[in-house]
Amino acid sequence: MQGRYAYIHTALIMGVVAVPTRIEITLLPGLPYFEVAGLSGRESKETRLRVEAALQNSGYKMPPGRISLNIVAEGYTEISGQALDLPIALLCLMISRQMILRPQIAAFGRLGLDGRVHAVRGGYARVRANYGEEPCHLVCPVQEDYLPALTDIHRNGALWAVETLRDAVLAISTEGRQGAVANVVERLKELSVEENGGSTSYRSEDMDGLVTVRGQAEAWNGLRLALAGEHHMLMLGPPGCGKSSMAGWAEMLLPELNESERRECWQILSLTERGSDVGYTELTRPFRTPHTGITLPALTGGGVYPEPGEVTMAHRGVLFMDELPRFSPAVLTALHQPLDRGEICVTRLKQRINFPARFMLLATANPCPCGYFLDRTQRCTCSPGTLQRYLSRFSRPLLDRTDIVVYMPDVREADLHDSFANEGKNSLNARESAESARQEITACRERQYTRCARLGLPPMLNSAVPPDLFADSFAITETAEEYIKVVLERYRLSARGLHRLIRVARTQADMECEENLLPEHVDMARIFCRSFSEQLYGRREKQ
Fold it and tell me: Which of 78, 315, 360, 412 is the most exposed, having the fewest neighbouring CB atoms within 10 Å of its CB?
């Protein structure tokens, strides 16, 4: 590969994964010129500026003649050149014979004008990329997000973390034997010791800032059930009934990430600038709270170089949307795809990028603009037209994808007195109850994963099990099947409504450590799976 042509391996980010590719270089006779096919004119100019300055300030020379580079990448309309600075600089040294190129070399990194190698977005994904069947030696910047990849990266090759361009040349020339080259494994082992060495757990002090929600037993039980099976949930109620406070407890009840989920979340986080603020062992299950004025690209993801949006940042966690009707119709409509498929497809020019988006939607809403449509003590001041316009803001398809709908009434003085008498007046009981519920939710999820493993299925929670697997994986008894038929006929459930009922019933059975799905589980699920209109108008008729 020496002479007038050379190439080097690298990786480009596509969504949340890194796609291996090659960069080719050829040196032709002629006046000095530098061009990169695959980069825009501005990106090519900026890349040359950084590479040329880094080479000269590191004691090397820019190759004389016409330098033509080509990024072998299909399906990319926009490519950022910053992560390609290091491989391009190494190619310039290889083509001008200022260093010896070894086979199967891969590199990525951003160069400073002084020759230092800086971290880049998506380093974890680039390190984990499959660069080929042959052993591959990877040269990369020193950055902490490689830590979780130590057990599965480059089993047959070498990984060299370098701080300067000279270190990179030295690593390739001496196969990393020189002490001046940072050994990434040793460096990151030191970082792992500094980072606490274990996953975080919630302390009771974390719950001190939360308001204890009393007199809302149905909502509390519904929240536990939703978190156990990752069922989407909507909480309705007047102002001050505790909807937002209940959502605050949801964040505390989320179970810890398992190793597979932690790596998925870390890979997503490493693609954003916010990833540098959190260590791998400190990573917790996401709980995202977008503002009601969020734009469509901010929710779904996008940009010139597409980055994940809120639905992807909430992957394996909770997306909390407070005051659901205040979000724009376009934003609510965009939620349909991730709620159905667990991913979001972003189209940018000629690119179609799939971002993971498997989350639990937790939403709150007032039953009307003033909030007192179903209140027992205060009169609703909304006119019929105002109420109708408000209710029309609820996306019907979105509500049809909501598994659990609960109404949280105003809590009267008698309710509070009974609640305090039963639970005690200090917050210690609330913390103990929350920790017990969190352990119960964690155990319920483990039972679901164990069942999938026993049946040879990929790990998934009940909310993600497709209907064609209900008979094989949900252990529905004959009496439960008969009762489901009765419920289906009596309440005229749609196909999606029937699927919601069965999934929630299975989670209720798992919460009770019951192997089979029984009629009482279906009956309990029916309480939580009441439709939005049934919650509103059914309660209105009873008043």
Answer: 412
Residue 539 pLDDT > 60: no
| Half-sphere exposure (Cβ direction) of 184: Cα atoms closer than 13 Å | 30
Which range has the worst mean pLDDT, 209-218, 261-270, 278-287? 209-218
Residue 158 to residue 176: CA distance in whole angstroms = 9
**φ, ψ dihedrals at 301, nearest 5°:** 105, 160
Which class for 421: exposed (0-12), middle (13-18), buried (19 or more C-beta within 10 A)?
exposed
Delimit the domains of the chain by residue range: 5-194, 204-460
- Residue 329 tokens read as 């119709």
Query: How far is the C-alpha of 395 from the C-alpha of 27, rounded, in Å?
Result: 59
CATH architecture of 204-460: 3-Layer(aba) Sandwich (3.40)
Whether residue 312 contacts residue 301, with contact meaning beta carbons closer than 8 Å, is answered with yes
Contacts of 332 (CB under 8 A, 6+ apart): 324, 395, 398
In a 13 Å sphere around the CA of 119, the CA atoms on its Cβ side amount to: 16
* Mean pLDDT, residues 53-66: 94
Any idea what the Cα angle at residue 15 is, between residues 9 and 20, rounded to 5°?
15
pTM: predicted TM-score of the whole model, two decimal places: 0.87
More reliable by pLDDT, 423 or 95: 95
Q: Which fold has domain 5-194?
A: Ribosomal Protein S5; domain 2 (3.30.230)
Q: Which amino acid is at 506?
A: R
What does the pLDDT read at residue 202? 47
